[in-house]
């Protein structure tokens, strides 16, 4: 293929149009991922249509098809990925048209629209040579811009000097129920750019939503995103969906992956892969003011200081559940937040805090929200609807309580 391309260029005069074909040898477009393939099912299409986000992938496809070089394609990806994030935040915070009858607090339009865009990039056959590395770079730019990762340092008004970082997650366990929403992602959209008043002055909340994929975490997406901002932060909290009917402030995080399949149906079991594994601890701990959080009246759901872990004791071979945290010299098998990506993001963020020398000065850790449940009579994914009044009320209550917990934490940290 490369020789044929060279021969064709030699036989024709070089023009502005043909010059853009020079560069890396073309690589075949890969097929859509498992995650992207779910997009064609009726539920995602209904969510996109009822939010007005159904036009996003088509508009992105048209813009991308006009690109005649990698540089042009990159500009399209950055511009439209950023626009998607800001549109989702604006919708969640009541700015601009709702675009449909789906409630504004819903995080799912962002998730499914992003997948429509990543599928376009992944399967695109451009009129110029696009290498495998360039396609991967475009996908990386799209992921980062559409998740808020490149928006963290954007100037805000009114300007609040103190920075609070909050992370959420995409929906997950979609093979169990494709209608699922993730309240941590919804909270991230609702809180991005908002201001919390504290005794030491205002604090600005900045948020990002992470994928539910083992591979992205192994490639360092958490550290890459948070490292530039942790030294300037007043507090950070990673947030995910956890147990039914309760919030948990997770006391201890473990260096272990338990293998539960991610959104691409990929499993991963073993020690959490980080840089400099020789200095990697088995456990990290929260520095959030959990005592203040659990005793404050933050909302309808009870909040717990959750201390249980699973370990292999020093000198032992079998896992043991410890209700009060790990024992000296033990090997992690589950943190207080389990052994999935909730635990891993908490482990990575707190390990980064410690490696930056911020353990004693930066409050940070993980909060699990209640499971977001559908309303009575709408629990069967085979017959249920994509939303109902109880579902919306539950999500709004969880978002409000995340906001209240964050306010308590920031206020306590300011004392």
From TrEMBL:
Q: Polar residues bias located where?
A: 266-280
Signal peptide residue numbers: 1-16
Protein's UniProt keywords contain Transferase: no
Please, which domain of life does this record's source organism belong to? Bacteria
**Stretches for region Disordered:** 19-38, 255-280, 314-337
Q: Which UniProt keywords apply?
A: Signal
Q: What is this protein called?
A: Pyroglutamyl peptidase
Highest lineage ranks of the organism? Bacteria, Bacillati, Actinomycetota, Actinomycetes, Kitasatosporales
């Amino acid at each position: 293929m490369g020789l044929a391309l060279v021969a064709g260029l030699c036989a024709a005069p070089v023009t502005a149009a043909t010059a853009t074909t020079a560069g890396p040898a073309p690589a075949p477009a890969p097929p859509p991922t498992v995650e992207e393939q779910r997009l064609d099912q009726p539920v995602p299409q209904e969510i996109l249509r009822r939010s007005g986000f159904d036009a996003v992938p088509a508009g992105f496809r048209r813009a991308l098809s006009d690109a005649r070089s990698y540089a042009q394609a990159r500009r399209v990806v950055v511009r439209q990925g950023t626009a998607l994030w800001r549109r989702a935040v604006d919708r969640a915070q009541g700015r601009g048209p709702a675009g449909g009858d789906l409630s504004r607090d819903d995080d799912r339009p962002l998730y499914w629209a992003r997948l429509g865009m990543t599928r376009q990039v992944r399967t695109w056959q451009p009129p110029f040579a696009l290498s495998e590395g360039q396609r991967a770079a475009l996908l990386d730019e799209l992921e980062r811009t559409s998740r808020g990762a490149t928006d963290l340092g954007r100037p805000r008004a009114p300007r609040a000097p103190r920075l609070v970082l909050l992370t959420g997650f995409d929906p997950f366990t979609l093979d169990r129920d494709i209608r699922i929403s993730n309240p941590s992602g919804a909270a991230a959209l609702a809180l991005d750019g908002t201001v919390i008043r504290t005794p030491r002055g205002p604090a600005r909340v900045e948020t990002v939503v992470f994928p539910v994929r083992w591979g992205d975490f192994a490639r360092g997406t958490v550290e890459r995103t948070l490292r530039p901002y942790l030294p300037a932060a007043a507090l950070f909290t990673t947030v995910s969906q956890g147990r039914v009917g309760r919030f948990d402030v997770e006391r201890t995080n473990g260096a272990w992956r338990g293998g539960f399949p991610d959104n691409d149906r990929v499993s991963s079991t073993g020690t959490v892969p980080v840089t400099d594994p020789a200095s990697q601890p088995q456990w990290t701990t929260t520095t959030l003011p959990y005592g203040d959080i659990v005793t404050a009246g933050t909302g309808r759901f009870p909040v717990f200081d959750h201390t249980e872990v699973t370990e292999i004791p020093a000198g032992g071979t079998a896992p043991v559940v410890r209700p009060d945290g790990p024992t000296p010299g033990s090997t992690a098998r589950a943190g207080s937040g389990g052994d999935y990506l909730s635990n891993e993001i908490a482990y990575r963020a707190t390990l980064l805090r410690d490696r930056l020398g911020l353990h004693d000065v930066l409050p940070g850790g993980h909060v699990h929200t209640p499971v977001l449940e559908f309303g009575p009579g709408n629990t069967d994914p085979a017959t249920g609807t994509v939303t109902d009044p109880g579902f919306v009320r539950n999500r709004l209550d969880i978002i409000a309580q995340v906001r209240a917990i964050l306010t308590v934490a920031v206020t306590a940290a300011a004392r």
